[in-house]
Amino acid sequence: MNYFRLTCVAAAALVLVACGGSDDPARGALIDPPATVTTLTAAQIDASTSSAGLQALTGKAKCDVKVVALNYATVGAKSGENTNASGVMLVPGGSCTTAAPLVAYAKGTDVQKPRTLANPQDSETFLLAAMYAAQGYAVVATDYLGFAKSTYSYHPYLHADSEATSVIDSVRAARNAAGTVGANLSGKVMFTGYSQGGHSSMAAHRAAERDYGTEFNVVAGAHLAGPYNLSGSLRIPDAIAGVQFFVPYLVTSWQKVYGNVYTDVKQVFKAPYSGYIENLLPNPTMTYTTLLTSGTLPAGTPNQARDALFQSDFITGSQTSTTHPLYLAAKKNDLLGWSPKARVLLCGGAGDPTVPPAVHQAVMKADFDSRGLTNVSSVDVDAAIQATFGPGGKAPTDPTSAAFATYYGAYHGTYEPPFCHAQARAVFDTVK
Question: Which residues are bridge partners to 104 per DSSP?
Fold first, then answer.
């Protein structure tokens, strides 16, 4: 399975979106009426999790799940920017009638601009429905700035502050929608996300406790396979799997946010990529696969793709200099140095070639430990991934083999997420 009060308030939100303004209580206001897309019955969910081999992790569904599309007011990456974002709310129903805690979820890296999570056939949405909503949790998941119905002109990729506001305002939107869609919310909030979403959910968790402690009763955060140590990741000598997607995405995003990562795009990227890279991602029509098969982004090994795409001086500078503009931008978006009040889980798999836990999860856990925090746990799901997906129950070791390419090509995007979500729900179950 691939990772897998309207009236005046809405009118006011629309005016703010159109005209700009200050950060105010309109954040999270519903721009459109919440729209029910469908209801997944518990039997339908069970049939799907059984056929996909997920039911051992998700358990059998206890609830029907209503899938609701949201469009809400939020803010942009720069001060004074008011805009909108869309997303989905998953509402437990059927035999589930008790008050539900709200799980705020942040999705992984997405290159498809039209994609919305308000789609029950989306594999990521279905996993959220099966793992959380069908077990009695309400879920809200943002599409982020620049995706789906959002009119924001770009996606501020791995920009911690705007990731946080997008997620926090989705919680407000879910609360505003609850009465209309039949959601009975308990008031407890949990934050979780995977990959980019692990960075986003941690940024939102940090901001919720730091800035909105009286508004949100945050009881836990489960941050899964996230790149928390971005400046440290620039220092590793070999490129990560997916470098041709993720690194151009963050370089061009941070240039749009900060304006000083480079003065000329040709200083960073080689031709022909320099001619179009700044507005390539997210893309209105292309997927990860077609970006490569069309030659729009380079294929090859991670190092080959990196060397084909980037100017070597830019890469070397970001690896070695503490004053390099990319390194300084990365430092602004590191998540080290904060102390959560609620319980926190970090999860990842040691074999992850895209977000290596040694660079991110281990460093984040050591940072928490350095301040004597006892409410943070860290889990490695690699053994379960090997046992389930490795040939003969072990990770393949021959880098020239097809099995090696298949295993590590699917590790981060397909194998790892369900195992970490199961760990997250186990934590949430203790505080719900």
Answer: 140, 191
* CA distance linking residue 260 with residue 237, whole number of Å: 24
- The whole-angstrom separation of Cα 145 and Cα 227 is 19
Report the CATH number that the domain containing residue 372 is assigned in CATH.
Answer: 3.40.50.1820
251 and 111 fall within a common domain: no
Report the sign of the C-alpha dihedral through residues 13, 17, 20, 25, in that order.
positive
Q: Does pTM top 0.85 for this prediction?
A: yes
Residue with tokens 């979106």: 17
For the segment 360-402, what is each residue's pLDDT rounded down to a tens digit? 999 999 999 999 999 999 999 999 999 999 999 999 999 999 9
The residue ranges of DSSP E strands in 27-63, in sequence order, are 35-40
What range does the domain containing 267 cover?
238-333
Give whole-number Cα distances, 176 to 9, 65, 284, in Å. 10, 19, 30
Residue among 146, 87, 150, 172 nearest 122 (CA): 87
Q: Is residue 268 part of a domain?
A: yes
Domain boundary among 284, 309, 333: 333
Kindly state whether residue 90 falls inside one of the protein's structural domains. yes
- Reduce the DSSP state of residue 429 to 3 states and report it: helix
Q: What is the CATH number for 249? A: 1.10.260
Instruction: Count how many domains the chain has.
Output: 2
b/e map 110-130, b = 16+ CB within 10 Å: bbbbebbbbbbebebbbbbbb
